[in-house]
Protein: Sec-independent protein translocase protein TatA
Organism: Corticibacter populi
Amino acid sequence: MGGFSIWHWLVVLLVVVLIFGTKKLRNIGTDLGGAVKGFKDGMREGGEDAADGKAPTATAQVANKSGDADGKTIDIDAKEKH
């Protein structure tokens, strides 16, 4: 019951290719690579903000609580600028 040999892995790879096909596997690889790249870029941008001493900025919208029942939202950042 030891580890798997190279032949076991080749059979598993053959079964996966037969089930999904090469095009689907290529698309999965491309999507996975794009996700990893996006994660690394996000981590790099987050590190630059921390190095600058600035907190990451996010635009938030909240419901207008000034008594208006129209349900409109306002931009907090825009309201603070005035």
User: Anything to note?
Assistant: The longest strand covers residues 61-63.
